Amino acid sequence: MRIKLIFPRRAMRPLEIRSKNHLIPSETLTALAAVTPSHHQIEIHDENVSAPVLDDSPDLVAITVYTFLASRAYEIADAYRSRGIRVALGGLHVTGMPEEALQHADTIFIGEADQSWPKFLHDMETGNPKGMYRQDEPTDISTLPRPKKELLDGNQYLSTASVAATRGCPYFCAYCFNSVNQEYSQYRKRPIESIIREIAHM
Q: In this structure, are strands 60-64 and 2-7 parallel, antiparallel, or unpaired?
């Protein structure tokens, strides 16, 4: 399948400058690409560093949704679905607002998707995709493959040499979307040895 992974454009806040978006990319989509079976063709499109492209025809579009990106994510999803292209949505906002997300997607992901995403792709290939996938157990991040940063246009960023040493957050602030669900926001640290290996690979 030809799969397009999209990080939606975020609105600029007062006093921000556009170049901030070009500092370091999110690892969300490169991590998802890393657990995608190799026979699929993947494109990553970050709307924060390149112009929107909504007139192409991938077999599947997957969009990560943070709360502050939800409006734009839904615009993208609706545009592709109007042309009969299957859309999947995941991320913390989808986990917190699944009923809302289902209005804009063919498939949604609750919780982390390191295990549920490959299962979904298998179901797509066998003609039996579900409308919702839920990964109840937090991912053991010490076992994950390196993010596929080679799929990014490195010229668009100050650097792509970031390393994710943790997942989740140790705090649960009422105002923060990271606290949408304590079960899915568990704070985990990667073993130091795996971080050193990733740095050495860079």
A: parallel
- CATH number at 123 reads 3.40.50.280
> Is 17's pLDDT higher than 70?
no
pTM of the prediction? 0.91
Determine phi and psi for 43, rounding to 5 degrees: -125, 135
- Size (the chain), residues: 202
**Rounded CA separation 35/24 (Å):** 21
- Cα dihedral 131, 57, 80, 115, rounded to 10, equals 30
Range of the structural domain that residue 189 is part of: 2-201
Q: Which of 117-131, 142-156, 169-183 has the lowest mean pLDDT?
A: 169-183
* Structural domains of the chain, count: 1
Task: Name all contacts of 68-72 with Cβ < 8 Å and 24+ positions apart.
Answer: 68/10, 68/11, 68/177, 69/7, 69/8, 69/9, 69/10, 69/93, 70/97, 72/8, 72/9, 72/10, 72/11, 72/47
The pLDDT value given to residue 20: 67
Whether the per-residue pLDDT at 75 is higher than 80: the answer is: yes
Reported as half-sphere exposure (CB side, CA atoms, 13 A), residue 202 has a value of 14
